[in-house]
Each structure stands twice: as structure tokens, then as C-alpha cells.
Design a protein that fits this description.
MetI-like fold; mainly alpha; 277 residues
Amino acid sequence: MTTTIITKRSWAHSLGTGAKFVILGVAAFLTLGPVVWTLVTALSPTDSVTQEVTVGFGAFADVFTKIPLWLYAWNSALVVMLVAAGQMLSAAMAGYVFAKFEFRSKKILFALILATMMVPLQVTIVPVFMLVRGMGLADTLLALIVPALPTAFGTFLMRQYFMGIPTELGEAAQLDGAGPWRTFFGVYLPLATPALAIVGILAFNYHWNEFFRPLIMTISDQNFTLPLGLVTLQGNLGTGSISTVLAGVILSMIPALLVFFFGQKPLREGLTAGVGK
């Protein structure tokens, strides 16, 4: 009887493990399948005359000859670096104030900031564009940078993180003669590095792949970011090789993959920082 029960449990355990592998395999195929197909197609372009498939990096070289890829990449890098740095600083300062200071209408103001997360970008893009044009920043990279500096999610994340840091640390610094700015930059901000890494990585990945705002805010080719510049390759779908288009997509993915690869450790630390508290 005991042997039968153990056998049934082992069978149920094996069945559950097999089901997990099947589910994970299907999820991996659905996630990586399009990426693998894109890479294979980019590496095996079809000759437009002979219709022969050749394996190589010729499609990647064609990207640099058809569009000013380095210019678009530089525009994207400049925008995302300044936006990420600005969001990290603004979110840290706002989160610190909401976590460690008491002032009138604090909860109402914080609720209003969180409410902006529920407003779609398409709803606010027209008034934002009017403000940008009124400031004389239309069709410039600053039109993409300045409106993106404040972040509601980053403010919320930093507030929650600062609330987990003991207030006694700031009080001890104040007893040693430190002012509010020195307490923030010398005590609290270094302890919030994991949360800052999350804000920076998320800002980089989002704005590196952003398409809608650059489409509205910029007109000149010299101000195009990489996702917007790659759209000009779509003409090759009808008259040239689709491999060139997909090669441009692969090239645009590399910086985001590198940031995620090197930033996954602080990202993991930031996400699990409050587990042991």
C-alpha cells in the first residue's frame, strides 16, 4: 500500500515537472521565435536578380549605406542618456521629499502624481507639443528630452525605497551638522543605488525604443532617433531585400541588450531589496 502511494506521488511529481517544461518551452518559443527568425533572415538575404540565398553580413552593411545609422544612433543615445539621468535625479529628489518630509496636501499631491500614470500618452501629446512649440523647442532633441524628465513611476518607486531606509540615519547626519542637501546626497542617495538603477534601466529601454513622441516632435532627418530613422528602410520591403530592414532592427536591439545584460545585477538587487525587511 505504501509503495503504491509513493509510486502515485512520484508519477504526479513527474507529470507536474513535465507540464512545467512544456509550458516554459512554449513560452520560450513564442518569445524567442520571432527574434531567431529575424536574425536568420537578416543573415541570409535573397539576391533580387538571381533569387539566390546567401549567408553573410551583407544586409548589415547595406543598412549603413542606405541610412545615416550612426547619426540616428547618436541622437537616440544622447536623448536616452539625458532622459535617464534626469529621471533618476528628479525621481530621487521627489521620492525623498514625499518619504521624509511632512507638508500640507502631501497625500493629495502624491495621489495626483500617481494619477498621471493612468493617462495615455496620446491624450497629452497635443498640449505637450503646444508647450514645446511655445518654448521654441519644436523639431529639436530637447523636445524629446525636457518633457520626459519627470517620471511618476520613478517617483513612486523612489518614495517606497526611501521609506524603507531608517530615518535615524538622517537624524544622525543632522546632529553632525549636515544640512538637507548634504543629508540627501551624502546619506540617503548612496543607499538608494539599486532603486536608481531600476529607474535608469527602465528609462533607457523605454526611450531607446520610443517611436510615437519622436514621430510627433521631430520633422528633420538630422533629428530622427533610431526607431524613427529605421522606418525609412521600409521602402526596401517592396523594391529591395527585407533582410536589410531586419538587419537594422537587429542593430537597434544591441544597445538595449547590452544595458540589460550589464544592468541585470543592480536591477535584481533593487527588485529584491525590500524582501528581507
